[in-house]
Amino acid sequence: MTETMDKSNQANLCRHLAHAAIATPNALAVAVQKNQRGKLTYQEIDFVSLHQRSDEIAYALNAYGLKSGMKAVLMVTPSIDFFALTFALFKAGIVPILVDPGMGIKNLKQCFVESAPDAFIGIPKAHIARVLFGWGKASVKKLLTVTDVNSGVGANVFASLIGGMSLTKLLTRYPIQNKDLPKENSSFDMVKLSDDAMSAILFTSGSTGTPKGVVYSHKMFEAQITALKEDYAIKPGERDLATFPLFSLFGPALGMASIVPDMDASKPIKANPAFIFAAIEKYQCTNLFANPALIEVLGQAGTTNVSAAKADTESVNKPIIKLNSLKRVISAGAPATLTSIERFTQLLSDNVPVLTSYGATESLPLTKIASVDLLATSHITDNGGGICVGTAVNGVEISIIEITEKPIEIWHDDLVLPANTIGEIVVKGDMVSHQYYNRASATEQAKILDADPNATCSKRDVVRHRMGDLGYLDDAGALWMCGRKAHRVETDKKVLFSIPCERIFNTHHSVKRTALVGVKINHKSVPLLCVELTDEAKNKKDFNEAILFSALKVAALAHKQTSAISHFLIHEKFPVDIRHNAKIFREKLAVWAQDEFN
Fold first, then answer.
1. Which residue numbers delimit the AMP-dependent synthetase/ligase domain (predicted)?
2. Could you write out the DSSP letters of every residue in 52-119?
3. What is the CATH number of the domain that holds 51?
């Protein structure tokens, strides 16, 4: 028993970086694109240099007073220093706290209250916000400022004004010491942890509720790395165009270069496609990770030539960009639209898949499906069958249980519903988180204890996660998404699910997207469909709302999923999350719709 537990105290995902530094020391590890007055420049670092720099930072952080087990907020824009700092924190056993700046000031403050960080590491803008809004005021004792070398901001001067120290000064004051070796061979003895020990806190975006801190272990990270190697066939030497900071960290861990474009990762819809295309071309990237919003932006940009469209309407939606170096594209974060995937695949070489993955911050990746297979299910999706998100990756078990708001303490197999029955999605696997940080109630609501029959000690109990999503498994074991549990609409006679219902109406040529909500009419719960029009319909002078609603009512009656829907409202522009531009805030729409009827 003791011997087994001792062997488990060897976990640290930075072992992969250390291996790459030996196996391919001079190979590109990270390249960061910058737009300098209209000219694209690139900062690069190889594996051995990244390994050495993160060692130097880890040593300096320890000397500064940050020790294993302490927690540090990291609010640094994608850069060489972002990678070096993150790996340094992991090496030192310091727990990085990663948040999405797009979640809003109020939510950010609450995140820092709950996580109680010991240190705050950030760019000047983040420190200014920290001071103004009191982020981490009660717990933060150490401050570190990170400044872009090209920004022109004096990091040392700024740090002296707000307290703390700049990263440059930190490394100067606390150089890594090894008397027996030359400086370039000096190394830091990375902390080894139990594989279930807390290694990071990643906050959910809050797009479907209050942000929660997900406790990550090195075991979770290792499971994610394994999935990328085995299920996505990513190999050392590849180059990834990384548009999401967390995923970009997996590049060096996989022996793959991470190419970071100049974009705001929290607002992918505002990314400049030309920058991304340029980075893919320069580095001949083999992999692209992009959420559905970015897939849509890139697909539109790569298939639309404005000048050609004016001269020849047949040129519209023909690819003007070809991304021939890409071997695969991975999309995750929100349900992708079939039309955007179909358009984007035109930019790729034949037989290159867009792999749509299902998961969440609490557990990712869980399933995958290739674009050719996804597009083949379009007739089912358009007729209310939900969205197919594929089959489980290796090591993941997916079950469907009855819809309930009650906590479930202990797992038992009779909870499982039969195939083709809609219920809540429950998952099990090494990439599944065990708890939320300082959120006992949320943990109780989302986690189910599943004692491992082969366990030799109680600490080997398995935790299953309730996704908060609804769906079903078909006879072949493929998972079909039917929307969030919180977004279902219950009436006296039936339960309606968001995705199956909305997709039926989304096929109408005047409809951009729809949102199912529940309202009270004459003291009864009634389903109502909010409709956002396409730009073409909005600009149409003779657009007739009554004709549209009549057509939608006909569609509703033609499907059993939507036969109870007879109320429709047009909303000018749906409120959606910043990152994905796809997660509709149905709660806000429900309040608006109710006001329209009052």
1. 20-437
2. HHHHHHHHHHHHHT--TT-EEEEE--SSHHHHHHHHHHHHHT-EEEE--GGG-HHHHHHHHHHH--SE
3. 3.40.50.980
CA–CA separation, 268 vs 243, rounded Å?
A: 8
What is the mean pLDDT of the segment spanning 237-248?
Answer: 89
pTM above 0.85, yes or no: yes
**Domain closes at, from 166, 194, 222:** 194
Rounded Cα distance between 102 and 122, Å, is 16
Mean pLDDT of 315-341: 82
Which residue segment(s) compose the domain that 173 sits in? Answer: 2-12+47-194
Question: Cis link prior to 365 (omega < 30° from 0)?
Answer: yes
Integer angstrom CA distances of residue 224 from 218, 233, 333: 10, 13, 15
Judge whether 72 and 178 are in contact, CB under 8 Å.
no
User: Is 8 contained in some domain?
Assistant: yes
Euclidean distance between CA atoms 463 and 408, whole angstroms: 12
Q: How many domains does the chain have?
A: 2
Q: Is the pLDDT score of 307 beyond 50?
A: no
Question: What are 517's strand-pairing partners?
Answer: 528
189 falls within a domain: yes
- Tell me the C-alpha distance between 70 and 90, whole Å: 11
Q: Which of 178, 194, 210 lies at the terminal end of a domain, its last residue?
A: 194
Q: Would you say residue 305 has pLDDT above 70?
A: no
Sign (positive or negative) of CA dihedral 195, 196, 200, 203: positive
392 in any annotated domain: no
- Domain-located, residue 511: yes
